[in-house]
Design brief:
mainly alpha; Arc Repressor Mutant, subunit A; two-stranded antiparallel sheet; 5 helices; elongated
Length: 131
Amino acid sequence: MNGILNLSQGSIIALHAAMHLAKESGAPVTTEEAADALKVSRAHLSKILQRLTKAGIATAVRGPKGGYTLDKPLSEITLREVFEAIEGPMKFGRCLMDVPRCGKAGCMLGSMLDEVNKQVVKRFERRLSDL
C-alpha cells in the first residue's frame, strides 16, 4: 500500500491525461501520443478518453489530424469532475466499516474522517487552471 488514500489507476491516468491535453493548448492529441507521453497502455487510455468525452470534459476530433482536446476552458474543469467521470460520484461516509460498530459512544476516530473528507473535497475542487 502506497498510502491511506488510494485512487484507482484509471482515475490517476484520467487526471494526468487531462493535464496532458491542457498542455497542448487546444491542439488535438492522439491516444498514441498521450499514451507514449504518460507511459500507459493505449487501450486503457482510449477507454479513459472516451469516458472524459462522454462526461463533456474532452472532445474527440476526427480525421487524419484528429485526436482529443479539452472541451472546456481549464478554469471550468475541476479535478473532481475528471475523477468522477471515471469513478462516479464521490461518496463519503462517517465510518470505515460497512456497518458502524462503535455503538452509542461514537467513532473511536472522533471527527478525523469528517476532517479528512473535507480536505479531499477541497483538493479535488481545484481547477486545472490552478495547477
